[in-house]
Amino acid sequence: MSKSKKALVMLSGGIDSSTCLYWAKKKYSDVLAITFNYHGRIENEKRATAKLARRAAVRNLFEINVPFIKEYSDFCTGSTFKNDCDRRLSSYIPARNMIFYSISAHYAEFLKIKWIIGGHNSHDAEFFRDATKGYIKKINSLLRQGGLVSGSEPPVIVLPLADMDRQKIIRLALEIDVPLELTWSCHNEGKTHCRECYSCTQRLEAFRCLGIKDPVFS
Fold first, then answer.
1. N or C, which terminus of the chain has less Cβ within 10 Å?
2. Which fold has domain 3-178?
C-alpha cells in the first residue's frame, strides 16, 4: 500500500477527534488511531475512544500510557489554583502537543504512515498556543529535518478542523455520520455529562445555536 494512503488519527473521544477520524476514513484507505492516557484521564473518555475506534472499524488503536503527564489542575490544587482564571487553564498541559505529536511521529515513521491527523479547531487556537496552525507548522518543519527512515517522505501533521468553530465541526460530523452519541466531552467523571464544566457548556451552546438536540443529553 502507498504510504500516502495511510493516516494516524489522534483520538481522544470527543467531538473534534471523532470527526477527524471519520473524515480520515473517507480520505485515506488505511486509518489507524492513537490515544494518550495521561495522569487522571477520565475513564469515560477512554471508553468513548475505544467505542469510536471499534465503530469506525479502525485496524489499530495505539493506547499510550503517559502517567507522568499532568494537567495544570493536577499541579495547582486547592488554594494555589486560581478559580477566577479562564476555566480552560485547568486542562492545560505544558508542551502537550509537542509531546503527543512527537510520539505519534515515532509510530508513523516506523509504520510508514504519511499523515498524522489532529483535531485542533479555531476555538482551541484562541487560548492554547500549541494548537495554532503556526505552531504545528513548526513541528512539521522539525519532522522534515529529523526523519532518517522516512527520508524524503516524513510524516505530516494535518489539521482538517483548524479553521472551523464548534458549530461548523458539528455540522461536518453530522454530514459524515459521526456517531456523536458515543463521544465524551465532560471534564468530570460520572455516568453522564455534568453540563457544568467549560467543555460541557461549550458543547451545549453549540448544539443550541444549531437548533439540534445533542444525542448525549437525550
1. C
2. Rossmann fold (3.40.50)
